[in-house]
Design goal:
The protein has helices spanning 3-60, 70-73, 120-124, 149-200, 214-263, 270-300, 313-331, 351-368, 418-428; strands at residues 84-88, 94-97, 105-106, 111-114, 116-119, 131-137, 142-148, 309-312, 334-339, 346-349, 372-380, 383-390, 432-437, 443-450. By secondary structure, the protein is of the alpha+beta class. The strands form four sheets. A five-stranded mixed sheet has the order 9-11-12-14-13.
Length: 455
């Protein structure tokens, strides 16, 4: 069953149950209210009639009288034909009745007829449910007032029927309104289902944003953002494979070409040595490229290749300088190190991986620096910052947004994977790496890490 039908069915059942329970409760409340009101009126009539009979007996000296005063003292809210009175003595003998007892015949054996026979004792003890009664003891005798229960139920049923009509109209309106609301709620879900099919079929660029409110709108926005991210990732993956195939093809072609030339005797003497040097150089380059691609794949995967610990950044910088010193001396570059704080700066990361990231960044700086490279460590806004600057030409504005993407490299770049690996390592450490240009010229790459809370 579709979700819309399930919601409509559940709402209809709930509405019917609610209206049914409400109708039953109102039925009994109305009935009790009318019965209570009728008893109060009978009580008032009984008191008035008792006073009238006592006054009449005092004047005439006899209790053998008809109850003609009943119509005159009845409240206007009750019809005189619906209330009947019986006066009996202590033994239960009927002494007199009201003048309007046209439907009730009273006999001397204390029984009267009102459709069917019933005695006063049943009325007095309340076992006769056909009547609402009020029994009052007077000096003259026992005054019994009664009104048929059917008169009250007929009024209650007439009012209840009107209420049922109102309930039916309200229920129909609520049902139609519920169907409208359900349609409004389900329609975005149906559209969202169509967009999810596009995601399933990898048509990420065709996914549209479904406009809706509340949680459905939030889910639709998440699906749209997810499709955009998947589309970008899919594009990056395709570009990665294209670039990877190109980067791998170049050294393989050089190795294959020189190997075939040496085998076929095309190269002789120094040409053979030169060809072997190129084969070794390209093999080393190919090995480094495969190693970097493998490392990057591991960093992107869920493999347990990242083992974190607390690392002192000053020790990491010292080791980086030691490893880069031969290259610095070869190029005649000077590396400057400075700290804002005398206390050691500590971060949590995989030491070997973070060292690799820093080596990649510094190596990239040596490629473009003219004379100087600066490494500066500081703490700002609860972040440990480590920046590497150079005095080179800086990063072009066209290249800056894509600097950390795979196989993106500058003019003198190598594989284009070094900074991508650095970004993956820093992000796996919970940090963020950014790039920009200095005001005085040259590039600056900053790695930020969250500070460690004191233990």
């Amino acid at each position: 069953m579709k979700l819309a039908h399930q919601i409509n069915l559940a709402f209809s059942i709930a509405l019917v149950l609610l209206l049914s329970i409400t109708a039953v409760v109102i039925h009994f409340v109305l009935l009790n209210h009318f019965v209570g009101t009728q008893k109060e009126e009978l009580r008032s009539i009984s008191s008035a009639m008792s006073a009238t009979m006592i006054q009449g007996t005092a004047q005439k000296g006899s209790i053998e009288t008809e109850l003609h005063a009943l119509p005159a003292i009845m409240p206007s809210s009750v019809g005189t034909a619906s209330v009947e009175a019986i006066l009996s003595d202590e033994t239960g003998k009927v002494l007199s009745t009201s003048s309007n007892m046209s439907s009730i015949a009273v006999s001397s054996n204390t029984q009267f007829v009102a459709g069917q026979t019933s005695d006063l004792q049943n009325i007095w003890n309340g076992s006769d449910a056909r009547y609402i009664t009020e029994v009052k003891a007077t000096p003259i005798g026992t005054l019994t007032l009664l009104t048929p229960m059917s008169a009250v139920t007929s009024i209650e049923q007439a009012l209840f029927k009107r209420l049922l009509i109102v309930f039916g109209a309200a229920g129909a309106f609520m049902l139609l309104f519920g169907l409208f609301i359900t349609k409004k709620l389900i329609q975005p879900l149906m559209k969202l289902q169509q967009e999810l099919k596009k995601v399933k079929e990898r048509h990420f660029s065709d996914v549209k944003l479904i406009k809706a409110g509340g949680e459905i709108g939030a889910v639709a926005k998440s699906v749209y953002d997810m499709a955009g991210e998947l589309n970008r990732f899919n594009h990056v993956q395709k570009q990665f494979f294209q670039n990877a195939s190109h980067e791998l093809k170049t050294p393989l072609m050089s190795i294959s070409g020189y190997a075939e030339g040496i085998k076929d005797g095309i190269f002789e003497g120094e040409g053979i040595d030169k060809g072997l040097d190129i084969i070794m150089s390209e093999s080393s380059r190919l090995k480094n490229l495969v190693t970097e691609m493998t490392l990057l794949a591991k960093l992107d995967s869920e493999e347990d290749s990242f083992r974190t610990s607390e690392i002192a950044l000053d020790d990491l910088v010292v080791e980086t300088i030691e490893r880069m010193n031969p290259l610095l001396m070869k190029k005649g570059l000077t590396l400057h190190v400075s700290y804002d704080d005398n206390e050691p700066l500590t971060v949590r990361a995989d030491r070997d991986k973070l060292l690799q990231a820093l080596l990649n960044v510094v190596s990239n700086a040596t490629r473009y620096a003219n004379q100087h490279i600066y490494i500066h460590s500081s703490v700002k806004d609860d972040q440990v910052l480590l920046s590497v600057c150079d005095d080179g030409p800086g990063i072009s504005e066209d290249l800056l947004p894509y600097l950390f993407h795979r196989f993106v490299k500058g003019k003198d770049g190598e594989s284009g994977l070094g900074l991508a690996i650095s970004r993956a390592i820093v992000e796996r450490s919970g940090g963020l790496i950014t790039a920009g240009n200095r005001k005085d010229g040259g590039a600056v790459i900053t790695m930020g890490f969250p500070t460690l809370s004191p233990s």
